[in-house]
TrEMBL record:
CDD domains: GIY-YIG_UvrC_Cho. This is UvrABC system protein C. The lineage of its organism: Bacteria, Bacillati, Chloroflexota, Anaerolineae, Anaerolineales. GO terms for molecular function: hydrolase activity. Residues 256-499 form the UvrC family homology region profile domain. Pfam families: GIY-YIG, HHH_5, UVR, UvrC_RNaseH, UvrC_RNaseH_dom. InterPro entries: GIY-YIG_endonuc, GIY-YIG_endonuc_sf, GIY-YIG_UvrC_Cho, Hlx-hairpin-Hlx_DNA-bd_motif, RuvA_2-like, UVR_dom, UVR_dom_sf, UvrABC_protein_C. It comes from Thermanaerothrix solaris. PROSITE patterns: GIY_YIG (PS50164), UVR (PS50151), UVRC (PS50165).
Amino acid sequence: MALSEHIQGILETIPTKPGCYIMKNAAGEVIYVGKAINLRNRVRSYFHGPATHPPKVRRMVQQIADIEWIVVGSELEALILEMNLIKKYRPRYNVRLKDDKRYPYIKVHWADDFPKVTVTRQMVEDGSRYFGPYTSVWAVHQTLDVLRRLFPYLTCDRKITGKDERACLYYDIKLCAAPCIGAIDRQHYRQMIDDLCQFLEGRTEPIVTRLRQEMEEAAEALNFERAAALRDQILAIERVVEKQKVITTEQLDSDVIAMARDDGEACVQVFFIRNGKLIGREYFILEGAQDSEDTEVLAEFIKQFYAEAASIPSQVLLPHEIEEANIIQQWLRDRRGGPKVELVVPRQGISQELVEMAAENAVETLRALRTQWETNRNRQSQALSELQQVLGLPYPPNRIECYDISNTQGTYAVGSMVVFEQGVPKKAYYRRFNIQTVSGPDDFASMEEVLTRRFRRYLAAQEQAQQPGGKPDPAFGLLPDLLIVDGGKGQLSRAVSVLERFGLQDKVAVAGLAKQQEELFLPGRKDSLMLPRHSQGLYLLQRIRDEAHRFAITAHRNRRTKAGLASRLDAIPGIGPARRKALLQRFGSLDAIRQASIEELTSVKGITPEIAQALRAHLE
């Protein structure tokens, strides 16, 4: 195939060392990330014998305008770098986990004297114990509801001294062990939380054995109330454990992975077996899998999943062999902390049956999800068609933008812009505007400022797109098919005036949505429109308006909180704007700064031991 001089020059200079390569299109967008033991041979192979490549690779090669590479010291380093680059850029031609958000984890704050149990989307090295990832926050909270009845852990923010006069309601309904009043001491509370962790790991037999021994000791000591509480806890644990399916008498820890594919997407099902029992399962959707071999898709899932997993078992059962098995096993062993990890393809027995069961579940899950997605698409199409008809648009509005203003008596005012495409939120295009030109609580003027800044950005994006190599912000580079302002005639008139000022009144449809009666106001129309109460079009408008309101409120609260933090920090000698910003970026809140050690404070750029001491003194 004909190569540009630029690409030809790159191919001639690529080293023969191990590393990663990054392919970009003409707009500078990263479209593929790969790794190789020999960078030159691997990258050059894309441009030789194109007829032998799969269709996806041929399409990708046609778009390559630039190639970068990073040399590393070993194949393992290349593997790790490749995973990080895919996570960072999410290239369209790489197989990748579909959800770009972080998955939820159960976090046990083990570093605290009296650990709490919370839900988080980020694992950090702070001495806590993590379990997950899970695909559903709802499922995590369901799990915590069960755990709290078995192991009544703390949920409040009290400072635990054991000397409080009374406990809260949760103690009375047996959802908290009440260390605040000394009902349980530190040692026994931490033992209970350790039991909770073992329970999540599927190791219930040691817990029940120890609790039975404690129950017998309490009964012998005539502490019948304590013995009865332990008996109830044992029975509750056993009821939950009864639902866990015993897979094998061998006390093995395994993950069983299988996959189903359809129309460019893949559904991977993971069964978690601990101590021979099936304790849970999760499914994950991958995209970019079209024209990719099963071995590649499975390998990419394993790397991306275990890069985020809180724990790694000694054995992973797979439906077929994968390339790079040896290097992936080496990486998993390092991630696990030393013990060997095996990737096994079972050929017979219970292990093979487990893989087949996981595959069957993957097929059923993907089928159910496709039915759900199709239903949602039909509803969205119906909603957009209704809006087209009601608003007299030439075609259904593909891109809808909605704007809202949030402030507290005119202070810290923030405007929000949310974007929906094909009836689905496009969160990457959401934008916030800190109001700059308006004094006092004037939502009309604030809305005018926000829309003026938005369409200035549109004009700037058009100019940038004309420049060589220009890459305009996609949030502002396109005009909406429908612009919605949260409010009635007043807000609508400001929006119309801004569109007229930019000469866009004939290109952008605009409407105001008032909250009280869900009335829709249109330019040049005296009376409002009332969509049917149960119409899909109204549901979509409400959802978009509510999302704009939520986004504005969140931005306003964050701005107000940061201003409060800044004012508190500004009063401390030695803390100026640069140090204040560094502290807030590192810790995020006054409470976190207050609880930080001197060593943690001095790790922040510009914070000396003297300033750290002053911080502690002023904030305590």
